[in-house]
Amino acid sequence: MHTADGRPVIGIVGRDVPALLVAGAGAQPFRIPPADLRTGDTGLDDAYAVMGRAVDRAAAAVLAAVLSGELDHLSGILISHDSEGSLRLFYTLQELHRRGRTAVPVHLVDQVHLARESTVRFNTGQLSAMWDVVSDWTSTSITSESLESSRAELAELRVVLEQLRMDRHSGRVSGVAALRGYRAAATVAPAEAIGLLQRDRHDRPEHDDVRIPMFLTGSAPLGDDLYLAIEEAGMLIVGEDHDWGDPILSDRLPETIDPDRNALLRELALARLNGAPASASSSMASRAHATRTAIVASGARALLSVVRPHDEAPAWDWHHQSAQAGVPGVMVRGDAADDPAQVVEAVTSLRASVGAAS
Amino acid sequence: VTRLASASAALSHQREWFQQLRAAVADGEKYALVNADAPQEILRAMDIPYVVNQWWASIVTAKQVAAQSLAVVAASGYPDDSRQYDVLALGSRGLDPDQAPWGGLPKPDFVIAELSGDATGKVFEAWTDDPSIGYFAYERTAAITPDGPWWELAPRSWERVFGHDRIALMADENRLLIDFLEERTGRTFQLSKLHEVMELINEQEEFNRQTRDAVAAARPTPVRVSDTIPAVMIPQWHRGSQWGRDAAKNLRDEVTTLVDSGAAVVDAERTRLMWVGRGLWGDTSMYQRFEDELGAVFVWSMYLAIAADGYIRYGDDAIETLAARFVGITDLLYAPPVAPAWYVKEARGHGVDGVVHLVADDVPGASFITLALEEAGIPVLEIRASNADPRTLDLAAIEESMTRFIESIQADA
């Protein structure tokens, strides 16, 4: 199955897979957005039966989508080693494919995350393997020309996303609109995403939003409901550190395509290593520092962490994050994080704290 | 059958060794706390004392102060329901002195871990809230599909099991660890010493292989799993020492003597069982009842078997060979397709009638291990529990389900 213009589509899980290489191989990168499936959903229960229940629901939701056949049109799925959930998803999908139970081949892009030269070398090798895999899946060689063309399209898209982020800081774009913008950028062709983002820009209100600006940390949300609940409860999400939000822009695109393959891949590996720290692959210290920096940059006056069950890392970050944030903060963890009423209750208490502090 | 002399000797040695370590630390010796999945051989070669995190967790659990240790973790601002086994040592540092097992774990000067899962790195980073404690992390790369049965390839053809790049990365990190330790201790690493350590380890694990093979072939089984675990694991924490090598030899000798004499855990052995996953061996009375009332005996746990198959590496470059030992050691136990095939091999080799599979929260691929065993015609009972958090354990329910499982196997026999 291909896009309307005949290109194959390659699925991506996680932020560590550079879309540039996928596009350079002539495919449409499609970052798979996990659906907000809940216990009792047949597909989710099927996924848990294979993966076990002690796994982040985001990974199980992607497995559910594969098991349902709705992703059978993909030429393959590239999975980041960005979290334990993603790694388990890879092992599971690899084994299911080996057993003939799923149609879509998978490949792990095993980029690891310590700021060391040895890690950069390993990650560069991983990207080289990915290069060969996507070329094989698409039967298309990656060339400097194809990469430059893809780079230019992605760079144009990033300009529009940067504008979105600036409008957001000034209160002219809601958090949920930004979330949808980032999702569009990761799931449809750049030209289509730019069209969607520019159309949305025309619809933006003349006046700045008066809701209390807030920074969101914790688990990456599944769907829009969490953002909608928070913003309907009177806070405006002006920034976040999950991998479906602002951190996407922190992984820099090359300004030019180095004709030397290894040099280009090294640059891509470094771009991710130097990007915003993700909870599951970064130290608590780096996360706390990044949170404080982002709060200052975005003008947030409150910090909310929403941590799903079995998403272990963000709960560890909270101790240092909250201590260094410089603004009032609340964490909602576990089953409560899946309950909109309890999230709204936390937002209400956070609003009161902000009011008391101002 | 009484307790193995090897087990008693190992337990006795461990108490003596730990008190020596405490005394040395009190005298100013620097020591390391190291996670089991990170290489310890460099510490051994540099004569830097170390405690293995999981061993200390087992002591905390056995002394029934796990819940109190987790409460300390929570009071520090960290979650007490994440990576509980890894975090018990950290929590135990805050126990009242009269609660602390074995006099208490001294404050380490450095901690070393592999970045497995989403939070192990954070658990070890939490130690550095005390800025006098240094932290060295190893990357955790993902398992690849081996080019054949790993237990045959790993000793000499390890790149076919783990891949060149993964081993090269860990070898680089071994060199960085040496720099880290030299800088902090003033000691000088000697490659020839690491070679000696590696040779002693291969000898130790070859003895373990012989022990495992003797147990696998024996009918009825001559030793309890609850006995072989300390007799194997305590020497494992002393890998690379002459004591560790000799302890493994003594265990081999004792087991083969028992086999030759026809010793039996259960005279009328009816059902041979395999325990997959971490152990729930704190209270052995349950297993005694299975033996006495049902003639059912556990003949296999991963501790002896992985010592036999997982650690032997013969190579000229000790740094690289060490990397080849550790780079995928945990994958061998949990990751598909690496792990499931091995459990099937071991189940067949030991002639088991059924498998009890403890599925912990933090391991991948458990369902594929169960599936592979069932496809091989071996019944499996899955138990979902954490062996670290006593709050999640319902031992009565576990005993009841295991009883039903054994009875169903015997009914089908």
In words, what does this structure look like?
- The complex is a heterodimer of chains A (358) and B (413).
- By secondary structure, chain A is α/β, with parallel strands linked by helices.
- Chain A has 14 helices and 8 strands.
- Chain A is 52% helix and 11% strand.
- In chain A, strands 2-1-3-4 form a 4-stranded parallel beta sheet, with helices on both faces. Chain A has a 4-stranded parallel beta sheet with strand order 6-5-7-8, sandwiched between helices.
- In chain A, helix 7 runs antiparallel to helix 8.
- Helix content of chain B is 55%, strand content 9%.
- Chain B has a 4-stranded parallel beta sheet, with helices on both faces.
- The longest helix of chain B has 27 residues, at 191-217.
- The two termini of chain B are 26 Å apart.
- Chain A binds chain B through residues 49-52, 54, 81, 83-85, 87-88, 90-92, 94-95, 98, 108, 110, 112-114, 116-119, 121-122, 125-126, 279-281, 283-285, 310-313, 315-319, 333, and chain B through 76-79, 82-83, 115, 117-119, 121-123, 125-126, 137, 139-143, 145, 165-166, 168-169, 172-173, 176, 335-337, 359, 361-362, 364-368.
List keywords for this structure.
heterodimer; A: 358 residues; alpha/beta; 14 helices; 8 strands; 52% helix; B: 413 residues; 19 helices
